[in-house]
Hints:
The structure holds 3 protein chains of 3 kinds. By secondary structure, chain A is an all-alpha fold. Chain A contains 13 helices and no strands. The longest helix of chain A is centred in the first third of the chain and has 35 residues. Chain B contains 13 helices and no strands. Chain C contains 14 helices and 12 strands. Chain C has a 5-stranded parallel β-sheet, with helices on both faces. Chain C has a 5-stranded mixed β-sheet with strand order 10-9-8-11-12. In chain C, strands 1-2 form a two-stranded antiparallel ribbon. In chain C, helix 7 runs antiparallel to helix 8 and helix 8 runs parallel beside helix 14. The model of chain C has no long low-confidence stretch (mean pLDDT 84). At the A-B interface, helix 5, helix 6 and helix 13 of A face helix 6 and helix 13 of B.
Amino acid sequence: MTIALSAPRWRPPVWWPLCVMLPGLALAFALSLSSFSLFGLGWMDMWRVLIDYDPTSIKHQVLVSLRLPRALVAIFVGASLAVAGLVMQGMTRNELASPSVFGVSAGATLTFALSATGLWPGLSALPIVLVTFCGAGIAGALVFILGGLHRAPINPVRVVLAGVALNFLFLSLTRAIVILADENAYGVFHWLTGSIGNATFADVRLVIPWTLLGLIAAFWLSHPLNLLRLGEERMQNLGGGLGRVRWLGSLTVILLVAAGVSVAGPVGFVGLMVPHICRFIVGQDYRLLVPMCSLTGAVLMLLADTLARGLRFPDDSPVGILTTLLGAGFFLVLARRNRANVA
Amino acid sequence: MTRLLCSAAGLLATLLLFAAWHLGAGAVSIALPDLWQTLIRGHPDYDFIFWDYRLPRLVIASLAGAGLALSGLLVQGVVRNPLASPDILGVTGGASLAVVVTTLAWTGAPVTLVPFVALAGGLASAGLLLWLARSQLHQPTSLALIGIALAALFAAAIDFLLTINPLEINSSLIWLTGSVWGRNWSHLPLLLPWLAVLLPAAVYLAYQLDLLSLGDDTAISLGTRVGRVRIAALLTAVVLASAAVSVCGAISFVGLVAPHMARFLVGGRHVRLIPVCLLLGAIMLVSADLFARILMPPIELPAGIVTAFIGAPYFIFLITRYRHW
Amino acid sequence: MLRLITVLSVIVFSWSAQAEIRVQDELGELVLDSVPQRVVALEFSFVDALAALGVSPVGVADDGDASRLIGPIRDQLDEWTSLGVRSQPSLEVIAALKPDLIIADVERHAAVYEDLKRIAPTLILKSRGETYEDNLDAVLKVAEAFGQQDLMEQRIAEHHRIMDGYAAQLDSDATVMFAVSSVKGVYMHGPQAYAGGVVHRLGLRSPLPQDTEQPYIQATLERLVQTNPDYLLVGEYGDQTAVDEFKQNPLWSVMASVRQDTYVETDPRLWSLNRGMISAEIMAAELVKLLSTSTASR
């Protein structure tokens, strides 16, 4: 009598999507750099820049001084907004939570507008990330209070309504400021939808450190967020330190949103779509979700920005237009499913 | 009851005060005795300004403000959340989208067509909302969520279309911002009939809405047809908002803040809330239009911007004080 | 006796027929009983036309800033009352001025045309987005409203002589482009825009194809570099605008106009706002100076 023992079936490691996403990111990066250019850029041009950079060649200049910072900004803004949305959804346990839906991006944009237009004199002297950080923080605090997040039981729809009302409030005020400031409103105006069209290396230097800081903090939070999924009481019992997680989580979200908004404006819905897509692919473990969301967010922004460039070629369009159109449709599908309570 | 009478009287007085101010102030100041004379007998200098410019603006602003406020009250009653407003139903968005699409598709469209297109757009978007939410009509919060998503989608579509085909400065874009500039007596028939018909409907629904606020089960046990009341109230709210938006464009905050202020003054019973809401809405839009004209004469800001500035801080203040939800 | 009556009635009839002025405008026909004395202009291009006729408007929609009208035009006119922004002028102030003619822009003011007509007879013409030729047509219509077509035709003929003179001096096939830089971005003025039309009139070329439909085209830095005109004129509205950011990019110095020092910052009020014969002549003079100094320096 033989006992047939079958070898355990080989399963791919849990982190296989990350391995797929990394080359995907590289591809999207290259695509973003070369596509839709009036100068007909191609792979050969990119290769040449790497091996034999010629500062006087127009094509090389376009790649290095226009496309490169734009692509880098797209990567980091995409990552920061996606992870911000992820952490928001984890902390509020509301699958509709995202920086744009909850008005956090809009709050940051408002303070940015006040500073950039010079309507609030003292503000222009402060570093821009600090200004947007305060704006995002105030918006976050208001949603917290208005949405009743400080009181149990949390009504998820109430939070969304509060966020929407605040978003609308901040957006109206920002528009009003742009109209009042008129000729001083440079930088704010074509930003109202979120755009990275004029990204420079200064923007890149601005966004990278804060995004990395936020991503590290988010990764550190992945274990507590996993525990939080089990329920708040359970988490307390397991020694999770709920209060501390709440504080750190909020700060992380605000930092990530501030970094993204300082450079790109209120790009909408990235923080809503990406966590959902990633959950579909890698499951619910935050230790996988944080890196996956970063990569996916980056890829999404790169692709959206590339498409935005091609939309009215040769005219540029703000990337926020595409993400908002896509995201609003996504939002509609989610709302119809009526599952405002996230697992 | 006395609270209601006092509030109503006080608000009426405030409205008349703002009305007088509105008629007298502006790039050309008209003193009070001159105002009176123009009203009674006519005045060669001020006839156009009074009869053809300020008075129609005043009347339209009052009616539109009242309509928006009433609409907001109904929406908040149905959704049972004070943060709801006609905007979340996607009405404003649908109306604006219809206007943008029409203007882009038909470049020679007469300007007088805009309000009708807006009205049609608002009603169509309400229909879309009801259809999308057909399986969840008993859950007002789901309805609100879908409405929000729809509003977001319309706004995104408008931005998208405007990016691809910039309209630049023309009448449609000014309309989209929400303004009472250029509104005259010819716009009155677009607004008054709706208000006249729907106000009694709203009063009729008021009692039903009070019952709804006790909770679905209690309401059903008291004989309320919950589903029907909801739909009726929503439709009324949508038509009111569409009519107001079709004439003045997208005016923010009136539908959100006015019901709040009303509740603050007279409590939560809808029958009492209706007159107070109407007066408050009228006051809000009239005063917004007034300040829009007198802040930087002769430059006129769009009234929709001023309502944001007035409504916003007051909204925050009210919310932090209001505990009744 | 009968002959006297006939002669008298002919004189009376012709006199009254002359007293009534009829002009075809964009939305119909304007009928005036007599030559207007108090005129209100809702766009700058009309003010240019009025200056050529020696008429001072009593009110102008000047966006709240009288200096938006260039000096040479302002110097010919008396002071006026501001009517506010061109897109939403204050109807109250217009009414208070008691004008007997309003000149409006069909693109901006069609919505309030009826209201304007209630205040005073209104001549509604093309202004915003007009071409160089459209402008000359509009200017002639303005003159018709004053019964001064002949004077205006003479002025237009002289304008053509002046422009031909400049064109002869400019004998070159260089490409010239004007762009506006504001908070909203950089907008190139294509061949259909007024500035483009003036350039074409002077025998110069636009770097953009002649059949480009849009008058104002938004330009990213990449697009501007690709367009690469031989002479680039930029008018800035405000201190810190889009073009300042462009200048900080290394790609800016790749452009021919920057390398050859043929990039000039000019007055947007002249090149874009005040469309008219006076502005066109000053623009032409500027171009002559620019092209001659740069060829001299080479």
